Amino acid sequence: MSLMLALVMGGIVGWLASIVMRTDAQQGIFLNIVVGCVGSLLGKWLFGMLSGRGHEGLGLRDGIDLTSVLVAFVGAVILLGIVNLLRRGAIR
């Protein structure tokens, strides 16, 4: 059940990030899920490095709480910004 919950939350986070970055019309539900899941890994890694905790990230527990959703959202926005920069030469 946790995999299904992670995919649903990844889709929601990816969709919200695509709305913020104005790429929603270019990607479907599958890419929203991929962006949300990869963005959550990127966000956890970045916030872990910034907080000085290294590979253990923010010490987030398994499950969904507000902190993990915000970290995933920020990571997804950063991921879409990097993709836009590489594809178009502008963050947008």
Please provide a written account of the structure.
Helix content is 71%, strand content 0%. The protein is an all-alpha fold and 92 residues long. It has one domain. Helix 1 (2-20) crosses helix 2 (29-51), helix 1 packs across helix 3 (66-88) and helix 2 crosses helix 3 (66-88). The chain is flat and about 35 Å long.
End-to-end separation in angstroms reads 36 Å
Contiguous low-pLDDT stretches (5 residues minimum) are none
Order of helices and strands: HHH
Q: What's the number of helices?
A: 3
Oligomer: single chain
What is the strand tally? 0
Q: Over all CA atoms, what is the radius of gyration?
A: 13 Å
Number of domains: 1
Query: How much of the sequence is in beta strands?
Result: under 5%
Shape: flat
Provide the structure class. Answer: mainly alpha
Question: What's the layout of helices and strands?
Answer:
Elements (H helix, E strand, L loop, with lengths): L1 H19 L8 H23 L14 H23 L4
Helix pairs in contact: 1-2, 1-3, 2-3
Briefly characterize the structure:
This protein has one domain (2-88).
Which tags fit this structure?
mainly alpha; 3 helices
